[in-house]
């Protein structure tokens, strides 16, 4: 059973990682003189949109999302509304955190919010796909020994790697190297994306390596 779940996770993560590659390559076909640095906002939203669509599709097809207690249309609409609301609040939260860490409040506000959108896509959206709009479940997963499945563990790893990657990406910005990837928020978005890809790769490997030590409580 462990091997089946880990293989399913590895396949899902490979598809999600491929979506980032496609979002990096495909804009060059439609946008003249496209480059990750020169057209960074285009690249950022292509990656965010691609990851969002593929995440939702993959987790829906795999049936990873928690089952709903009701099947009424009003309940599904309410659940969708709460998910959208949580995503928007997550964007505002990340935007506030980034500003508190030193980003300009008004100058480059669009770029800062775009970074927040990307971070929300790499972290909060996966929480919504795996756990649903259930804040208590989110708190449980990110608390000590709170994971109840391999997907919870993968969520911990990918979220941590994404946030740490964005944080590490901020370090080169003050240096006077005058490189195009040092323009705000290029290095942070590249760091977050690299961290996310690292998490996608590391999660199944780490879970497979520690599968004998992992014990999950019954839901």
Automatic annotation (TrEMBL):
Which keywords are on file for this protein? Endoplasmic reticulum, GPI-anchor biosynthesis, Membrane, Transmembrane, Transmembrane helix
Give the subcellular location.
Endoplasmic reticulum membrane
Q: Which biological processes are named by the entry's GO terms?
A: GPI anchor biosynthetic process
Species, as recorded = Carassius auratus (Goldfish)
Q: Name one GO cellular component term.
A: endoplasmic reticulum membrane
Involved pathway(s): Glycolipid biosynthesis; glycosylphosphatidylinositol-anchor biosynthesis
What broad class describes the main subcellular location of this protein? Answer: endoplasmic reticulum
**By its UniProt entry, which InterPro entries does this protein fall under?**
GPI_biosynthesis_protein_Pig-F
Classify the protein's membrane topology as the record does: Multi-pass membrane protein
Q: What is this protein called?
A: Phosphatidylinositol-glycan biosynthesis class F protein-like
- Transmembrane spans: 12-30, 42-63, 84-106, 112-132, 153-170, 190-209
């Amino acid at each position: 059973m462990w091997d089946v779940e880990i293989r399913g996770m590895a396949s899902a993560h490979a598809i999600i990682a491929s979506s980032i590659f496609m979002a990096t390559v495909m804009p060059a076909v439609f946008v003249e003189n496209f480059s990750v640095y020169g057209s960074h906002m285009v690249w950022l939203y292509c990656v965010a949109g691609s990851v969002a669509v593929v995440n939702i599709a993959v987790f829906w097809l795999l049936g990873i999302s928690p089952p709903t207690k009701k099947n009424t249309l009003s309940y599904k609409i309410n659940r969708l509304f709460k998910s959208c609301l949580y995503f928007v609040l997550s964007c505002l939260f990340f935007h506030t955190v980034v500003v508190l860490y030193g980003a300009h409040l008004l100058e480059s506000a669009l770029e800062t919010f775009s970074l927040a959108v990307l971070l929300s896509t790499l972290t909060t959206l996966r929480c919504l796909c795996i756990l649903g709009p259930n804040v208590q479940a989110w708190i449980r997963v990110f608390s000590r020994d709170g994971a109840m499945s391999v997907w919870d563990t993968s969520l911990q790893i990918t979220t941590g790697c994404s946030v740490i990657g964005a944080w590490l990406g901020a370090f080169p910005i003050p240096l006077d190297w005058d490189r195009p990837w040092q323009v705000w928020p290029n290095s942070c978005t590249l760091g977050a994306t690299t961290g996310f890809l690292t998490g996608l790769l590391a999660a199944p490997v780490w879970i497979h390596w520690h599968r004998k030590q992992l014990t999950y409580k019954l839901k």
